[in-house]
Amino acid sequence: MSQFPLLSSPVKLGSMLLKNRMMTTSMSPGHDYTNEEGQPTLRFYNYLEERAAGGTALICQTICFYPRLKSQLDHLHPLPLGYADEHLPHLSKMAEVVHKHGGLLVGQPYAVHDWKPAPEDKEEYWGPSTLSVSKHSPQPMTKEHIRIFKENIVQCCITLQKAGWDGVEVMAGVGGILNRFMSPATNDRTDEYGGSLENRCRLTVEVMAEIKKACGEDYPMIVRWSPVDFIKGSLTMEESLQIVKILEEAGAVLHNLAPGWHETSVPLTIKDVPEGYWSWISEEIKKVAKVPVATAYRNTDPFSMEEILAKDKADVIAGLRYNIADPEFAKKVMEGRPEDINKCICCCRCLDDVISQGKPLNYCGVNPRLGEELETPLAQAKQSKKVMVIGSGPGGLAAAVTAARRGHKVTIYERGPRLGGCLVMSAIFSPIYDRLNTYYKTLLRKHPEVKVNLNTAVTPALVTREKPDAVVVAIGGHPIDLKVPGAEGGNVVKSHDFLELLNGNPPQKPGIINKVMYNCGSVFLKFFYTPDLARTFMGKFPWPLGKKIAIIGGGLPGCELAKEMMHYGRELVIIEEKKKIGHDVGGSDRFHIVSAFKKSPRVTMETLTKVKAITRAGVEVVHEDGSEAFHQAKTVAVTLGFEKNMELAEALKGRVSEVYAVGDCSNPARMADATKAGYKAACQI
């Protein structure tokens, strides 16, 4: 019997039969996936095909449904154009690459924020009225605008049907135009499109009726909507339960539920949200729904997905990030290989780049094959080479596995007692990051041809003796030191002290208690370490982190430490020279992390502040205006991040014909950057 009998089972959505219960939600991958003519590029076709070949039952894709002038296309959010016969060739090809692998493709006319009623107009933020829940004040739609808007959507649906797409999705959620008509928080109209719930849903119902009239009764219509939106004065669950009936009578074959709006301040997708959390919403909707219901957001684990279906909380699992992380997620589920899934670690790099910053989908914390890498299949090397990979963090592991897949003979050298590099420490503060380490351990166990040497510090002399053809240096960056009086005191803890402790190397600190504790701790953790154990030890034991902690550096490392210590009631002061705490934290996480700090009576944030000196009692600081202050602290934690660490790579040049430096040692950045750099280096060998 399959481990995932429900997740692997077919489901019918109107006239569409899905081969399993896994579908993607819609997103535009951004620039370079769509060209200046509004056509998908090879990168986009390959992105779709990889996921269809990976067993995804249904792919939903955003489409531009209104005319755009060619002169405007390179300045606008790039979407494939899909509203005229001239777009049929590329739309048909998109359907082709999905259909040839047994997948289904539906198009979503992207009616979220901007629209324009005429080709020559500028795209603007439109809505039923000027009422707003964000900094944008909508352009109120007249009856004539409404007519044009409906015509645009219907014409897009006709075009998609001609191109062989399997259905359409009506976007009536996440604070989009139709959603703003539905919500009393953004709709104060007094005509037939405002007031009562029936009137507020009228535009969505009319859109669906006209699609049905143009495309036929049997052409499937999914509806993406937000029954719980966390917008003050908006929809209640009581109203949402009534909307279910309204949408089904209008022809919906699936309720694709999206919690919240884009403007919502409640965390929706970050790693702190529990796995499968939002299925409570689909569970409520299912109580009255007569057609299938999909749950979305924070579904990244197949066991949780199966449980949601088994408890009848949803009929379909919708999501995007699990599918970005591993295009073969569905295939591995159906084949009963969950251990082989490269699970999303919810770092939100994809969302931060594409949605928050308008960048293309080039980076993922666990999957390097995005962006330009999609344009070329991973090719076998012309000649098998002996490859040394020095360091087993995300960059080193990506390089090792990729090089081995290309046919090279690979050996990993790790100076610590376990694989993972920085992942070993990161998993203490973000337990979900241990997924990536577990994935690579499983992969290496199944591929013993990749050799692993632990507890091995690599020197130029060792490399000379081993005589590799190529070396990938992935040893991480140098921690940035704080150069002030007292920085070497016994009450000062540096970020690398933790990693050295976990690696069995006791940091050399003054004081008899430090010597005893660091030595005992390093021996114990070398053999018995788990992220949970280290987290518990660090949080509940008042050493090396005391009850009052001054954190020097308010970037990502400092924020992660502070966030964890908040759970244990520590008194914290975060001291940062820049203007913002969390200046390098991804946009999806930063707001929620900093908000939590602001709300906590135990956390003080000092920005534009420099450390003057450290004493046994705390930290002396000086503010930008020249004023000075003193913060009492039992422990001073230095979390200033990393700088380049190129000494080993430079020393190997001339000894080895090919030397590649990847990850923080060459470019201190985020995990996704290291993963990508490791993959690219291995492709060059």
TrEMBL record:
**Domain FAD/NAD(P)-binding positions:** 385-673
Q: Does the keyword Cytoplasm apply?
A: no
Query: Which intervals hold domain NADH:flavin oxidoreductase/NADH oxidase N-terminal?
Result: 9-339
The answer to whether the entry has keyword Transmembrane helix is no
Q: Name one GO molecular function term.
A: metal ion binding
Q: What are the required cofactors?
A: [4Fe-4S] cluster; FMN
Q: Which Gene3D superfamilies match?
A: Aldolase class I, FAD/NAD(P)-binding domain, NAD(P)-binding Rossmann-like Domain
Which keywords annotate this record? Flavoprotein, FMN, Iron, Iron-sulfur, Metal-binding, Oxidoreductase
**Record-linked Pfam families:** Oxidored_FMN, Pyr_redox_2
Describe the family membership recorded for this protein in Swiss-Prot or TrEMBL: In the N-terminal section; belongs to the NADH:flavin oxidoreductase/NADH oxidase family.
The name of this protein is 2,4-dienoyl-CoA reductase (NADPH2)
Organism phylogeny: Bacteria, Bacillati, Bacillota, Clostridia, Eubacteriales
